[in-house]
Amino acid sequence: MPEPCRLYLVTPPTLAPQDFIPLLAEALDAGDVGAVQLRLKHVSDDEILHAVELLRPVAQARNVAFILNDRPDLAVRSGCDGAHVGADDMDVTRARKVLGELQLGVSCYDSRDAAMVAGELGADYVAYGAFFPSATKETDLRADPELLRWWSEMMELPVVAIGGITAENCRPLVEAGADFLAVVGAVWSHPGGPGAGVRAMNAAIAG
Q: Which of 27, 33, 136, 169 is 20 to 30 Å from the Cα of 205, by its Cα?
């Protein structure tokens, strides 16, 4: 029997790490979350390491994997559980070597070939998207849910769906075979707070 789909939280584009601690704790205490990815763009290494130092223990104390976006090198240095790379970041072969036994996730957008190559090169999971318009990351690319169905039927490697996913639109992605739904605004911008966002997403996933 396949594993149920789980939530994968990606942090907001900008955050104050100290202020974000209670928000992250609230989200993770509200229900099942499989992973948290710290995604900070256009900041220094020291700022990334400071954020990891404050936020990583919040996730790991709750047995939630803490993944660093873009920077496998800093993930290893700072005690993260893994790193996630995209097409413009470190290449998959080098990322795998840097991370050693830590988890490696790879963005594959809407490419079957890229996902298969990533799997062959040692990725622990692949990510497809964007599936819907997103306020977090501008892209004209729209992945088809059929990619998730194809991957889940052909491969055992977990697949993550990302991009504009909400409690209202996620059902086709769950039914197509997504192992994880990566969300940003659906949780952190939820009018009831991040805890309410997690509960709404998990209720929608459960269907």
A: 136
CA–CA separation, 76 vs 72, rounded Å? 6
> Whole-angstrom Cα distance, residue 148 to residue 163?
14
Superfamily of domain 6-206: Aldolase class I (3.20.20.70)
User: What are the domain boundaries of the chain?
Assistant: 6-206
What is the model's pLDDT at position 135? 77
Query: Which residues face 36 on adjacent strands?
Result: 9, 66
Flag residues of the chain having pLDDT under 50. Answer: none
Is the torsion defined by CA of 182, 184, 189, 193 positive or negative?
positive
Number of Cβ atoms within 10 Å of the Cβ of 63:
8
- Cβ-proximal residues to 155 (8 Å cutoff; 6+ apart), any chain: 115, 116, 119
* Helices 17-28 and 194-206: angle between axes, nearest 10 degrees: 40
pLDDT score at 1: 59
